[in-house]
Specification:
Order of helices and strands: EHHEEEHEHHHEHHHHHHH
Number of strands: 6
Largest sheet: 6 strands, mixed
Structural class: alpha/beta
Radius of gyration: 29 Å
Shape: elongated
Distance between the termini: 82 Å
Strand content: 5-15%
Length: 366
């Protein structure tokens, strides 16, 4: 068998794509309402591929790694999802993205089947467990019926792999022989098309869906209450609260162990901890509902909104904290996606999150 590559020069570099990202995370998309399908119809080839990548990342297949082939010469695979550390030399699924103005015809699909078979014969990969074709407008009825009939699809392919047929133009006779021989033994049920409705149903549960299509965020579950005893991850902001109340009531001898049961400040201390846990619940919700960086952008803007007050003159640390926590509820944060599901206590809790990493310090020397 010849190892030449008649399909032209190809790029073999891969770009590892562990997590898709969107530009400018954390702000709302403006403009008239338009359905996800309508938006997708306006996508470029690259945008469609990025959307499919997000969907692949959401498929519950426990892929070890997902890679995106760069540029032209994809050898029949736009996105490769590996099931083992052996990558293309082990079990994997192949995803081919086609953003055409019309429905796919069988003549659009047969060349892709040829490319992946050639890549397999040339030793570029083992044949994928599944070869999934995704197109916004789907397949024409004849094409869809053929894809749903593996033996019929095989016969259609073999008819087009013969001397003088345009599909194999430029291939040598020995290559055509090898392709036909391989196809004869291949299970063509591995080829399938995926409907856009099914893709959108899965994509709707990803962190990218609401930001990409300007839809409402999913309902937010109730926040878990703060545990009776502060956890290790609360150490710094709790320490800061103790310092604030100890400065205000020096005779009480407050410590992190005694403050919750203190008659003067215990209830206030517990309320502050509840707001911290509400903000933590918002952070966890954001992780699964909006693009990476969205929650951090909200934290940054809250810090930017209160920092001048934080650095101003205050008669006491308690006065400083009260002023900042009062101000944070008045900040205009409507451009942030998460504000639609956030409450005032979430904003206050974010201030305590910032105190937990010393971006906010209530008690300063002098």
């Amino acid at each position: 068998m010849s190892t030449s590559e008649p399909m032209g020069a190809v790029r073999t570099d891969l770009h590892d794509v562990p997590k898709p990202t969107l530009v400018d995370p954390g702000v709302t998309l403006l403009g008239p309402s338009i359905s996800p399908k309508a938006r997708i119809s306006l996508y470029s080839d690259v945008e469609w591929e990025e959307f499919v990548l997000e969907w692949v990342c959401a498929i519950d297949e426990n892929y070890v790694q997902i890679k995106r082939f760069g540029g032209a010469g994809d050898k029949g695979a736009d996105i490769a999802a590996f099931k083992t550390v052996n990558g293309l030399e082990g079990a994997w699924d192949c995803f081919q993205c086609k953003h055409y103005a019309a429905q796919l015809a069988l003549s659009d699909i047969l060349p892709e089947i040829l490319k992946i078979i050639l890549a397999t014969l040339n030793g570029d990969c083992v044949f994928p467990d599944s070869y999934q074709i995704l197109a916004p407008r789907g397949c024409s009825t004849p094409c869809g019926r053929t894809l749903s009939s593996p033996e019929k699809l095989k016969r259609a392919f073999l008819e087009k792999v013969a001397d003088g047929v345009p599909l194999v133009k430029g291939l040598k006779a020995e290559q055509i022989f090898d392709i036909r021989a391989y196809a004869e033994g291949l299970d063509f049920s591995r080829f399938k098309s995926v409907e856009l409705d099914a893709v959108l149903q899965v994509h709707g549960n990803t962190p990218w869906h609401a930001a990409r299509f300007a839809t409402a965020l999913r309902p937010r579950p109730a926040a878990l209450p703060a545990p009776d005893e502060p956890a290790v991850h609360e150490t710094r902001y709790v320490q800061q609260l103790v310092e604030v109340f100890a400065q205000r009531f020096p005779a009480e001898g407050l410590t992190s162990e005694s403050i919750a049961s203190n008659s003067k400040v215990g209830e206030s201390f517990r309320r502050h901890r509840e707001t911290f846990y509400k903000a933590e619940s918002l952070r966890l919700y954001a992780r699964d509902s909006v693009p990476a960086g969205t929650f951090e952008k909200l934290q940054d803007d809250i810090y930017g909104g209160v920092v001048d007050t934080l650095e101003g003159e205050h008669p006491s640390a308690h006065s400083k904290m009260t002023s900042v926590l009062g101000l944070v509820g008045q900040l205009d944060l409507n451009r942030h996606r998460l504000i639609t599901v956030a409450e005032i206590d979430d904003r206050k809790g974010i201030c305590h999150q910032l105190a937990n990493v010393d971006r906010i310090v209530w008690v300063t020397d002098g």
